[in-house]
Amino acid sequence: MNINLVANTIRGLSMDGVQAANSGHPGMPMGMADVAAVLWTQYLKHNPENPNWADRDRFILSCGHGSMLIYSLLNLSGYDLPIEELKNFRQWGSKTAGHPEYGHTVGVETTTGPLGQGSTNAVGMAIAEKMLDVRYNTADQKVVDHYTYVIASEGEFEEGVSHEAFSFAGNHGLGKMIVFYDQNFISIEGDTHITYTDDVQKRMEAYGWQVQEIDGHNTDEIAAAIEAAQAENAKPSVIICNTKIGFGSPNKEGSHDCHGAPLGEDEVLATKKNLGISAEKFFVPQEVRDVFAARLAVLKETEAAWNETFAAWTAANAERSAAWTAAMNGDLPDLTGKLPEFEAGSSLATRASSGKVIQALAKEIPYLVGGSADLAPSNNTYMAGCGDIGKDAFEGRNFHYGVRELGMAAVMNGVQLHGGFRIFGGTFLVFADYVRPAARLAALMGIPVIYVFTHDSFCVGEDGPTHQPIETIASLRMIHNMTVLRPADATETVVAWQAALENKTGPTALCLTRQNLPTLDRSVFPSAENVRKGAYTLWQSGEGTPDLLMLATGSEVEITLAAAQKLGEEGQNVRVVSMPSWELFEKQDEAYQESVLPDACAKRMAVEAGTSFGWERYVGRRGALVAKNDFGASAPFKVLLEKFGFTTENVYEKAKALLS
């Protein structure tokens, strides 16, 4: 096998794709082509004809700006990505977007581009493999046995999330995670030494990783390093690959000029001549096609052997097999009568009622796993009796992420993408700002991770404004495909959790209180099942179209209801709408939306312990708002409620003024 020809063909395709688009990053694919060629022709276990094979190796191009590398590999390997798609790189409607996108291009395991996210997703995938191993493998049959490979640039290693994730991976001993570090010392602004002089070897060793350093253009060294990494079972591995960005380019090799811009037609031709490959655009020699065809034949045999093992395992392990199927499909059990019920009039923080729901769900959904960024006692996210996940202890279901909110969220994405689990993670709502980059990618990919955000308002109290979310809920609502739920009491919290589990097309954020809230009497008020509709009429003092609509979420439903009842006693026809989720409400048909928020009622107000931003869509420019548009303060929460105007009396006065 002419591995150099394979690598140079990858370089040619990468150069041509970027040049055709007149946009992109040719340097990294050219620099890492040798590593990729060795990995994909000799070691990576996958089947292009069955991209979803459960026991495939996962390959993550974390430095997604070099996307022509993975697109070239997918085409050569036999995935459904024809050469025409490479010619349409970065064009409207093509499958070869500027950065790899999960669900858009077959063979892409996760959306990468924001540096460091792919590496951290890979940590989640590697830990998922370990967890599936201990759950399903037997002494006789091994149905889970695969690696997670990552190509990462210096950008990944500079981003803070990599420190969080690599520390976590080392601590957990993820021996089947192998990272190829593209050390070329070049970034957009020039030589990385102007800002980045870390001793990567010492850093990774300190994290508990196996470290090797090689010539990234020496195929024998590459192969030996991969085999040494595979032989290390107790530690994740990093292979520091010393490479030249833009390898082969006579005038731009080793320069930042080829990092984020096309080489130029003349330089492409000069590079191809220098590499000894055809000047024809998007040319693939038959010899290279034959190499990948031969590899595909081997891979198909590998999967066929696995299928035989899986069939024997299924026949011998009926209970495990059923659990596997349910977990891989994300099948939800019938939860009727299985979730906690709360006595009317009881007082409970929604973080506490959520904790009780989690305990019940843990018993009913064996593949549900979760954790917290060092806040489980406050988030109430720990599943009692389910064990912890840690080094040499992957049979548990409780993650301990440490104080690593962004790392937690990105690892969650990786676990969910891998398959076999449904995952949730907890922290304080104010720290959603640390979670946000990974949450946005979860929304973009449409993966159903669940965030348990507690301490959801300035009622955090004495901790002060640094810990009091004001604009946070609005910022989450702004993320397309993110479903935000802020339940008003314990019964709404139960249904909010069910709605989160039923949402399989994107992430869900549960926003929960620290302070106690009264449990509404559902024999008097409508069923909390209405939470699934996003908003519903909770109470109205009269008949027909009300004179005033009073919308509220979460903890503010209590004071809004009390104010409305006072107005009702005075003969006013007012309606209280509990609106736990804008997103779910917007999914309802127009008839339902009109039944809850009739257009004929022009007088409206909203009450929420956060910014007023966005509420104009429901109350109009002239609507009244009881909101908080500046920062909080340090004091007992009841004092803050009084000082900030979140009292029954203030809501009543504002409503009365609007009515008059």
Primary descriptors:
Rossmann fold, 660 residues, six-stranded parallel beta sheet, alpha/beta, 20 strands, five-stranded parallel beta sheet
Give structural notes:
The chain is of the alpha/beta class and 660 residues long. The chain has three domains: 3-299, Thiamin diphosphate (ThDP)-binding fold, Pyr/PP domains (Rossmann fold); 347-518, Thiamin diphosphate (ThDP)-binding fold, Pyr/PP domains (Rossmann fold, 3-Layer(aba) Sandwich), CATH 3.40.50; 535-659, Rossmann fold (3-Layer(aba) Sandwich). 42% of the residues lie in helices and 13% in strands. The strands form five sheets. Strands 10-9-11-12-14-13 form a six-stranded parallel β-sheet, sandwiched between helices. The chain starts with a helix and ends with a helix. The mean pLDDT is 97.
CATH class of the largest domain: Alpha Beta
- Secondary structure tally: strands: 20
Let me know the largest β-sheet. Answer: 6 strands, parallel
Helix percent reads 40-55%
Q: What fraction of residues sit in β-strands?
A: 5-15%
Lateral arrangement of strands in the main beta sheet: 10-9-11-12-14-13
For the record, the CATH architecture of the largest domain stands as 3-Layer(aba) Sandwich
